[in-house]
Write a structure and sequence with these properties.
Structural class: mainly beta
Strand content: 15-25%
Helix content: under 10%
Shape: globular
Low-confidence stretches: none
Mean pLDDT: 94
CATH class: Mainly Beta
CATH architecture: Beta Complex
CATH topology: Metal Binding Protein, Guanine Nucleotide Exchange Factor, Chain A
Largest sheet: 5 strands, mixed
Radius of gyration: 17 Å
Oligomer: single chain
Distance between the termini: 49 Å
Bound molecules: zinc ion
Number of helices: 1
Length: 205
């Protein structure tokens, strides 16, 4: 058996998600809004052991902690997340090998790597103006790319260890969404993306 991350597929696999597993461990910023069955750990019949996940949450009030999968890279966020969006563009889907990404935008000045920043790898899509996929060179876990020439940074919310206290406000680039993924919530859907880039919220705008 092999597990294929559906986000890697370029064609319609002809099958749709059938249940949510590990629903009890889902991100605090993510609401399950469809009617698929949910189980809190492995699906019935799978008795694989569940390994405890280390508690990496911030011990500093007002500071959000984030990290990659292996924990070699850690970062802190000291500024508020101004807006959070679910992005369904092809680049985001490929970068995450998932239905979409959920990014929160905050000030570059609020972002500090506290560990392992030398492990962060940045892949800029050659024909993109700015789109860059950042990840840990050891485990591949998605990270972020604070640039000194840009006032804001996109945080993949899945890399956060803390509850940012915000949720996505819309779905963008839905004309490009994965065929196997149905949007089941009531958030606005912007087929070709938002009118304004995130820069408009920050001093770049
Ligand atoms: Zn890592």
């Amino acid at each position: 058996m092999v597990e294929i991350p559906a986000g890697c597929l370029d064609d319609d696999p002809g099958i749709r998600p059938m249940r949510h597993i590990f629903a009890a461990s889902r991100a605090p910023w993510y609401d399950i809004s469809d009617n698929l069955p949910r189980v809190d750990a492995y699906p019935p019949g799978n008795d694989s052991p569940v390994i405890d996940w280390p508690d990496r949450r911030s011990k500093k009030p007002g500071i959000l902690h984030g990290s990659c999968l292996c924990g070699a890279v850690e970062y802190e966020v000291s500024t508020p997340i101004r807006v959070t969006r679910n992005c369904h563009c092809s680049r985001c889907r490929k970068a995450r090998a998932a239905a979409h990404t959920t990014n929160g935008f905050t000030e570059t000045a609020g972002l500090t790597f506290t560990r392992g920043d030398e492990l962060v790898r940045n892949y800029k899509v050659p024909d993109a103006r700015t789109f860059t996929h950042s990840f840990c060179g050891k485990c591949g876990g998605a990270l972020l790319n604070p640039r000194s020439d840009r006032s804001f940074v996109a945080i993949p919310l899945g890399s956060l260890d803390d509850d940012p206290g915000v949720k996505a406000v819309d779905h963008i680039f839905t004309d490009y969404k994965a065929v196997w993924f149905d949007i089941s919530d009531d958030l606005p859907q912007l087929p070709e993306g938002p009118d304004q880039s995130p820069a408009a919220l920050f001093k770049d705008g």
